[in-house]
UniProtKB/TrEMBL annotation:
InterPro entries named among the record's database cross-references: CARKD, Nnr, Ribokinase-like, YjeF_N_dom, YjeF_N_dom_sf
Annotated function: Catalyzes the epimerization of the S- and R-forms of NAD(P)HX, a damaged form of NAD(P)H that is a result of enzymatic or heat-dependent hydration. This is a prerequisite for the S-specific NAD(P)H-hydrate dehydratase to allow the repair of both epimers of NAD(P)HX. Bifunctional enzyme that catalyzes the epimerization of the S- and R-forms of NAD(P)HX and the dehydration of the S-form of NAD(P)HX at the expense of ADP, which is converted to AMP. This allows the repair of both epimers of NAD(P)HX, a damaged form of NAD(P)H that is a result of enzymatic or heat-dependent hydration.
Residues bound to (6S)-NADPHX: 58-62, 148-154, 175, 272, 321, 363, 430
Pfam entry (one): YjeF_N
Stated family: Belongs to the NnrE/AIBP family. Belongs to the NnrD/CARKD family.
Boundaries of every YjeF N-terminal domain copy: 10-232
Lineage of source species: Bacteria, Bacillati, Actinomycetota, Actinomycetes, Propionibacteriales
Quaternary structure and partners: Homotetramer.
Biased composition, class Low complexity, residue ranges: 106-119
Record key words, sorted: ATP-binding, Isomerase, Lyase, Metal-binding, Multifunctional enzyme, NAD, NADP, Nucleotide-binding, Potassium
Protein name: Bifunctional NAD(P)H-hydrate repair enzyme
Reported cofactor(s): K(+); Mg(2+)
Length: 488
């Protein structure tokens, strides 16, 4: 499991550890982890050219100490100091190791060298340009030590101007990409877009939640020995999914394995029925029932001969392509008093499932409609909105997106990190609803069914895609292969 904690949780854990360790030990752990990640990227230190962007806090301290390690390994290391005061121990260490320090908050007469005097009279951009005695493009990697968990967006003008100077050079962020909101994953103005983020102790929310996650690159976690409480966020890994997946016991029969019922599609949208059933019929449940328009039922039977009609089920999937029939389908399904997936057209009636065991599966536009906000606002603040919806409906909400989020009151939000952009294809959501329904029928809780289903759906898309285009049916067909890869 990947876990992410809030800044407050990290600060509390660090405080405990700091009291136990010799002064500076924690920062040394962080800096060595950072330096080794940069060395990996460079393929060794000798001959490498490294630029450090250094802010006023301990994030800058990490960068400076790591820079000292890199300089001792033979790299040319230059630090642009973005504040009048930077971590003194780190600055001394870099100087002693032969690094070059340039101050960006005050102009130096020569425009190069480490200046300690002068007044800031130039624009941020002029200062950044003037300080670049070495041409920024000649660096192999930039280390972003501007701000970490102590930063509050938006970035200050000097930092933003320095970032403009180094655009296009591979970027390693220290702890978090500077300029993102660490606890919400939201953006506010200029920010670092990292290729790699080296973080310490635990993941932070911004590494997993979009839009900030998109700018974190590959996240490398350095263990610094923090003892942490329950996380704010978690992301299932293959082992976690394998442990949660149902597997048939030796005496299983189709009813004991779980029966999932699908009430989806309509004469206007028969495809939604076929794809919801395709997801439900991935083999995880013992049997699939389809209930709907007779003509659509025929199509379903032709495509999936093993699917049967109405009868007892353990979970329902309702809403996709249901058109005008969504409300009736939902009401009828609710009379069975069973867990259910509420998708697409049925989401307009989500208040009917308030406080019941259900999985609501909106995309950003649908969630915006449910909460009475703009779609753009949901996309800019997905974590905030999915949590709000979970509280409002007192049930499980899966907000679909690049990194889908599963929220339930009182539980860590689960983030799905599997998937491929090729999954943004018509009908993919119908397949997802079906898989989650199948998992509910096998007895998983709505929270586990939603997060495991979302993980499998993303993994199946990646497997089917192999880097190329796919359609929703491909995802459904790949599901058994992905399940097999986890269970054998
Ligand atoms: N506390 C610890 O024990 C450890 C901390 N570590 C590092 O320390 C970092 C936290 O250090 P700090 O608490 O000093 O905080 P940061 O270094 O993250 O940032 C605080 C500083 O940034 C400035 N700042 C805030 N918002 C800004 C903005 N929008 N634009 C430009 N500057 C801004 C503030 O004036 C302040 O001086 C972590 O992210 C991590 O990198 C690591 O060394 C591991 C151990
Ligand atoms: K940073």
């Amino acid at each position: 499991m990947i876990r992410a904690h809030t800044v407050e949780q990290v600060r509390a854990a660090e405080e405990t550890l700091l009291a136990e360790l010799p002064e500076g030990a924690l920062m040394q752990r962080a800096a060595h982890g950072l330096a080794h990640a940069v060395l990996d990227l460079l393929g060794g230190g000798y001959g490498g050219r490294v630029l450090l962007l250094v802010g006023s806090g301990d994030n800058g301290g990490d960068a400076l100490y790591a820079g000292a390690v890199l300089a001792r390994r033979g790299a040319y290391v230059e630090a642009w100091l973005l504040a009048e005061k930077v971590h003194p121990g780190g600055a001394d260490a870099l100087k002693r190791a032969g690094g070059t320090l340039r101050r960006l908050d005050t102009p130096s007469p020569s425009g190069s060298g480490y200046s300690t005097s002068g007044s800031a009279r130039w624009s941020s951009r002029e200062r950044a340009q003037r300080a670049t005695g070495s041409r920024p493009r000649s660096f192999d990697v930039v280390v972003d030590g501007i701000v970490g968990i102590g930063g509050r967006p938006p970035l200050r003008a000097d930092a933003a101007a320095a970032l403009e100077q180094v655009a296009g050079i591979p970027m390693v962020a220290v702890d978090t990409p500077s300029g993102v909101d660490v606890d919400s994953g939201e953006l506010a103005g200029p920010h670092v877009s990292a290729d790699v983020t080296v973080t310490f102790g635990t993941h932070k929310v911004a590494h997993l939640v979009d839009p900030a996650a998109l700018h974190s690159g590959v996240v490398h976690l350095v263990d610094i020995g923090l003892d942490l409480p329950a996380p704010a966020l978690e992301a299932l890994q293959p082992d976690d999914v394998a442990a949660l997946l149902p597997s048939p016991d030796p005496h299983a029969h189709k009813y004991t394995r779980g029966v999932v019922g699908v009430r989806a599609g309509s004469s206007t949208y028969p495809g939604a029925a076929l794809l919801s059933v395709a997801g439900a019929d991935c083999g995880l449940a013992g049997m699939v029932r389809y209930v709907g328009d007779p003509a659509v039922q025929e199509l379903v039977r032709a495509a999936h001969p093993e699917v049967v009609g109405d009868g007892r089920v353990q979970a329902w999937v309702v809403g996709s392509g249901a058109d005008d029939g969504a409300k009736d389908s939902l009401r009828t399904a609710l009379t069975d008093d069973l867990p259910l997936v509420v998708d697409a057209d049925a989401l307009a009636f989500a208040d009917l499932v308030t406080g019941l065991p259900a999985v609501l599966t909106p995309h950003a536009g649908e969630l915006a409609g449910m909460l009475g906000v703009d779609r753009a606002d949901v996309e800019a603040r997905p974590l905030h909105h999915v949590r709000e919806a979970a509280e409002l409906y007192r049930t499980t909400v899966l907000l679909k997106g690049r990194h889908s989020l599963v929220a339930e009151p009182g539980r860590p939000v689960r983030v799905t990190t599997t998937g491929t952009p090729w999954l943004a294809t018509a009908g993919a959501g119908d397949v997802l609803g079906g898989v989650i329904g199948a998992l509910l029928a096998t007895g998983l809780t709505p929270y586990d069914a939603a997060s495991v289903g979302s993980w499998l759906h993303g993994a199946a898309a990646t497997y089917a895609s192999q880097g190329g285009p796919i359609v929703a049916g491909d995802v459904a067909r790949a599901l058994p292969v992905v399940v097999a890869s986890l269970t054998r």
